[in-house]
Hints:
By secondary structure, the chain is α/β, with parallel strands linked by helices.
Amino acid sequence: MMSGKRRSKGMIAAEGRGRTRIRNPLHHIRRQSARLLRSILEGDAGRRAVASIKSLVYQPSVRNKKATMALVCQTLKYLPILKEVLAVTHLLNNRIKVQTELLYVICFDLLFGEEVVPSGAAEKLVLSQKTSLRSALARIMVKRKASKVEDLLSEDKCVSADSSAIRYVRVNTLKIDVNEALEELRQSFQVEQDDLIPELLAVPMAMEMYKHPLLLNGALILQGKASCMPANALAPDPDWEVLDACAAPGNKTVQLAALMKGRGNILACEINKKRLNRLLETVKLAGASNVKVFLQDFLKLDPNAPSFSKIRAILLDPSCSGSGTALQRLDHLLPSSTTGQKIDAIEMKRLEALAQFQQKALQHALSFPGVERVVYSTCSIHQRENEDVVQFVLSYASGLGFQLATPFPSWPQRGLPIFEGGDKHVPIYFVVALVFIYFICLVWCEFVGDHSVSGWSEC
């Protein structure tokens, strides 16, 4: 049970027109959480999430982020129980029109969280069924022989982060020097500089970073180490023209801009309009003036078009299962989560469809006539999305003069040797309370006069 004391502390009584009006901060937080919950559940049902749970909650427009994150996550965690309780009480069939997700949120607070006061029509509706809701929960617990509510939860919903774990922030060198950022952060945090990516800093997970001025002005960007490695593997020259094929939300795009010192040109392609808006926000906040964003399906780009003739490097981080970052993204809270379970037929079909798309996208990236380097990356644990995709395009790539190469030679983990050179790519494993897995494959072809020296590099 979560304490209800926090609520009363934030309640303010105001007299107006002969009656007392209660301004309850949880009234807004619940409705904000319900809107986010609807977006999360709709994306999960269609397997087409606009962004992760964390990304949605920590977007600039969301207020009271900490409280909202807690309420969204806890409601998702208890959602199977809430649905069962609501089904017994028939509250979802009530004639009063109330958003389903708002009922989930308020019922969570009533049964497991904060005290509920009648601050709105939805709260009044739930409170009118308070006895029935609590009785339904008690009957479910008796039926399942549960001594406490937590016994009703599946094991995968009970995963929690270790407070000793770390999070990474990347210094946006378009706005601030690494040493300057270190000096300022060390006034408030314990900070360590990464030994592989110098502009990457590690801070304790328990430290709240989202309100830090350097984060708010784009000088720092919350970005995991594995997520930073594809752009570093590509390592474009500052004056090159680079294509980010599936660019949103844009962290890798603006990282490329920083690696290129704000010079050259970066074309950032995104097919989804909502994600494009997020990409535009990221680019603007980062001050990445050398990035041009456009709405387009990467597979429909004409490699021989004059506008793409100068592209020399392509970063391809396409849609994938996200299975390598499931815990970090809080995907284990989603209804579709298969954590610790076998992949069902629906998920297997989705995985195959993703792999088919990834194969087409990687082959398409290699077809741009002036391209010298291509990085293919996923945040997937599945061979079908990783080594199998690379193996599919190997003969095509070799015919164009590309081969596998080896970025990050000191990195200990390498890929599955299912084809010649397969042990050169780098699957990136981090296990620090949460699991974050990335797969990166770099191919390169260096033109020297009329000849080419080429290589693949997988990491």
